[in-house]
Write a structure and sequence with these properties.
heterodimer; A: 295 residues; mainly alpha; MetI-like fold; 0% strand; B: 343 residues; 2 domains; 15 helices; 2 strands; 1% strand
């Protein structure tokens, strides 16, 4: 296992773009882990609440005290970005983890048992797929009310289908292999065949997908916060920081539009670099795991 | 072929029923009072202690299956309730706003398909060359910039700094004419209607408002189509029949255009169809940023203002469009690729 992991790392290090992706992801992981040291919370009980230095609505440019400036409502942008990294990882890990569990269960059941079980499970999957992702999520949030926990539930509810289909496909492929037949002929119980033989061999496409989704899911949550459906006001969240900037960078009052550049630049950079890191890493993993590339 | 299409169409009512069931299931979270807005056609109905009577009439305290049945009866008669956020019947809101969204997505998908496929072919022909690398970066940016960031940047540059492309759908003066009695609405699409009415200034005004949201919507999709076309082109360029064509001494142009591209277009067609459906979802963010009065900005507004009837209506429209869209994609896929209908 460890050996395989090192082999993958070596392959990533060989390709400069893959390496850049890995380093970007590692950078954000470090920022998320050491957030309390990099941006010390004033109130340790509520670290996700961005500190405010005043109540004026006008953003203030970067200074010694606020290295990235302050947003509308005097929230410290630097603090928001550092702790927003934690928010992004939290959402990504929880949502993808839960969606993966549902997808694994549905996909494996459908493929392994086949027949009417497969038919019923796949038709249910189809119905969930009958909504554009964002629409389904917004419907659920409307019913539950806004808030980060509700956003995560809604994302899980409309994201497991992709995993279910992917897993069903690869399990169907693996199921036909001789070693599975052999296991069956020897009388190995069904759950053991699934967990010992089928899943470990069907898991590679999932790893690639998860890496891509670590970019997609937190960005979708950020978009919902941008719409005002996600985190509460003042919560360290990249989408919220971007939405704070909206009124200032398109001021129709005729003022200098570049005066508030920092309100959009820093949060956008964080979002784009984070997504780029995971997408590059996903690309790299696909190149490595794709069996056609191994030959 | 015919049997394939018939089978798919026969499945349609089943999927539709499942869809309405799922949508209505979500309303289980709501109290009868909250749900009532999805039935009322006019707020005046609620005057004089009628609330309890209406709740009984629509069976909102009954069990789920009875509620579901009565609701199906209502929506099949086109009664989608009263939108609290816009103070209009939901069916009227959808009728007014759906054409606006359709206009936006149709104009956005056309350049995406042509440019995306073209760039994908170019990238595959120059595999691992300079152009391929540049396009890779371009695609990566498209994947990594979320719509709300890109939209705001475009708004910032073209409206905040340059003042060229204002948000909204039409300027004030154009709206006055557009909604006046003398202006005929043939399609509901502002650009087409303006042309049909022979009103060039309104056509130009509508176009001016469409450019920014189209840019936002399409940039994010170009990248996807580019990648799909590139990889399927690379796959078909590696096939034996391409080697045969080369051995025959055919020109490279002929090989790419006639032999490789035709086969590579099969997956691209499917993706383009799915992309159009995805775009209909993507308009929620884009329309909100640009204050564009379509179904997407209505969805966002309804969600933030607890407009339950509005959001149910939006969900129904989206579900219907998606199911029909998927059907068209499947059928056209079967037409293009004989392996699907015969396999």
């Amino acid at each position: 296992m460890m050996e395989g992991f090192l082999k993958i790392l070596k392959k990533i290090a060989k390709n400069p773009t893959s390496l850049a992706g890995l380093l970007l992801v590692l950078f954000f992981v470090i920022v998320a882990i050491f957030a309390p040291i990099i941006a010390h919370p004033e109130y340790p009980d509520t670290p996700y609440q961005m500190p405010q230095s005043g109540w004026s609505s006008i953003p203030q440019p970067p200074s010694w005290q606020n290295p990235f400036g302050t947003s509308e409502g005097q929230y410290d942008i630097y603090y928001g970005i550092i702790w927003g990294t934690r928010t992004a990882f939290k959402i990504g890990i929880v949502v993808i983890g839960l969606a993966l569990i549902i997808g694994l269960f549905v996909g494996t059941m459908a493929a392994y048992f086949g027949g009417w079980i497969d038919e019923v499970l796949m038709r249910i999957t189809d119905i969930f797929l009958a909504f554009p992702f964002l629409v389904g999520v917004i419907v659920i949030i409307t019913m539950l009310g806004p808030g980060l926990t509700h956003v995560m539930w809604a994302l899980v509810l409309f994201y497991w289908m992709g995993y279910a289909r992917l897993i069903r496909g690869s399990v169907l492929e693996v199921k036909e292999n001789d070693y599975v037949m052999a296991g069956r002929a020897l009388g190995t119980p069904g759950y053991k065949i699934i967990t010992r033989h089928i899943l470990p061999n069907a898991i590679f496409p999932i790893i690639i997908q998860v890496s891509m989704d670590m970019a997609t899911i937190p960005l979708t949550a950020a978009a919902l916060s941008f719409l005002g459906l996600g985190s509460p006001v003042g919560y360290a969240d990249w989408g919220q920081l971007v939405s704070f900037s909206r009124n200032w960078i398109i001021s129709s009052s005729g003022g200098n539009p570049f005066a508030y550049w920092y309100t959009i630049t820093f949060p956008s950079l964080a979002i784009i670099l984070y997504a780029m890191g995971w997408n590059l890493l996903g690309d790299a993993l696909r190149d490595i795991f794709d069996p056609r590339m191994l030959v | 072929m015919a049997s394939f299409i018939i089978r798919r169409i026969l499945l349609l009512p089943v999927t539709l029923l499942g869809l309405t069931f799922l949508i209505f299931f979500f309303t289980s979270f709501l109290s009868p009072y909250q749900l009532l807005s999805a039935y009322v056609q006019d707020p005046r109905q609620l005057q004089g202690g009628n609330v309890e009577k209406l709740i009984d009439k629509y069976g909102l305290r009954e069990n789920f299956m009875i509620r579901y049945g009565k609701w199906l009866g209502q929506i099949s008669h086109g009664n989608l309730g009263w939108s609290l956020s816009l103070n209009e019947p939901v069916s009227v809101v959808i009728e007014q706003r759906f054409p606006a969204t359709l206009e936006l997505t149709i104009y956005a998908i056309i350049p995406v398909i042509f440019v995306g496929i073209w760039l994908g072919v170019v990238a595959s022909v120059h595999h691992n060359g300079v152009i391929d690398q540049i396009l890779r970066v371009f695609a990566l940016l498209g994947y990594s910039i979320p719509a709300f960031v890109l939209g705001l940047l475009i708004l910032f540059i073209f409206y905040g700094v340059l003042g060229w492309l204002p948000p909204g759908r039409l300027d004030q003066w154009a709206q006055m004419i557009f909604f006046s009695k003398n202006f005929h609405h043939y399609t509901g699409l502002a650009t087409i209607d303006a042309l049909l009415n022979g009103n060039i200034p309104i056509f130009l005004d509508a176009l001016k408002h469409l450019i920014s949201p189209i840019l936002t919507l399409s940039y994010l999709s170009w990248a996807g189509l580019l990648r799909i076309t590139r990889s399927s082109m690379l796959e078909s360029l590696g096939q034996d029949y391409i080697r045969t064509a080369r051995a025959k001494g055919l020109s490279e142009k002929m090989i790419v255009n006639k032999h490789a591209r035709r086969n590579a277009l099969i997956p691209a067609t499917t993706v383009a169809g799915l992309m159009f459906i995805g775009m209909l979802g993507g308009v929620i963010i884009t329309e909100t940023i640009f204050n564009y009065p379509g179904i997407g900005s209505f969805a966002a507004q309804a969600a933030t203002q607890f407009d339950y009837a509005g959001i149910l209506g939006v969900a129904l429209v989206y579900g219907l469009v998606t199911i029909i869209g998927n059907l068209i994609v499947d059928i056209s896929y079967a037409m293009i690729d004989p392996r699907v209908r015969l396999g």
